[in-house]
Amino acid sequence: MTERIVVVGAALLDGGRLLAARRSAPVDLAGRWELPGGKVEPGETPDRALVRELREELGVGTEAVRRVPGEWPLRPPYVLHVWTARLITGVPRPLQDHDALRWLAPHEVWDVDWLDQDVPAVKEVVRTAWGDGPDGHAPSA
């Protein structure tokens, strides 16, 4: 049995918004949106991988906050784990594998064409970050 390789995705949250990144490569993924991130390297913890990937891909300093419940299959042997993350330094810009970034308010999360494998993860991020209201907001008290 092949060992699974964890890919970490960042639910980078700032000012009540979620960052989405549009893929520029590979060709079959180009033009669709994802949570930025990448593979956990041997000997690396997932939270450190997340911070490293966001520095490499977006040029920002971040802090991994908590793992979003769930695991989502990618192409074998990869599985996606998502972590919420906080922006510490810098302004995100697309440096690797992306050609655009977009900050999405709760009511805008579904305005972009997410990669199929990211959709269930994004749904869980919306649920855990903003509650179960119709637009992603927690119901008013």
TrEMBL record:
Q: What keywords were assigned to this record?
A: DNA damage, DNA repair, DNA replication, Hydrolase, Magnesium, Metal-binding, Mutator protein
GO MF annotation: an example: metal ion binding
Kindly list the cofactors needed.
Mg(2+)
Which intervals hold domain Nudix hydrolase? 3-128
Q: Which Pfam families match?
A: NUDIX (PF00293)
The EC number(s) attached to this protein equal: 3.6.1.55
Signal sequence annotation:
none
User: What is one Gene Ontology biological process annotated in the Swiss-Prot or TrEMBL record?
Assistant: DNA repair
Q: What class of enzyme is it?
A: hydrolase
Catalysed reactions listed for this entry: 8-oxo-dGTP + H2O = 8-oxo-dGMP + diphosphate + H(+)
Identify the InterPro entries for this entry: MutT-like, Nudix_hydrolase, NUDIX_hydrolase-like_dom_sf, NUDIX_hydrolase_CS, NUDIX_hydrolase_dom
Keyword Metal-binding found: yes
Q: Would you identify the family this protein belongs to, as annotated?
A: Belongs to the Nudix hydrolase family.
| Descriptive protein name | 8-oxo-dGTP diphosphatase
**To which species is this protein native?**
Streptomyces minutiscleroticus
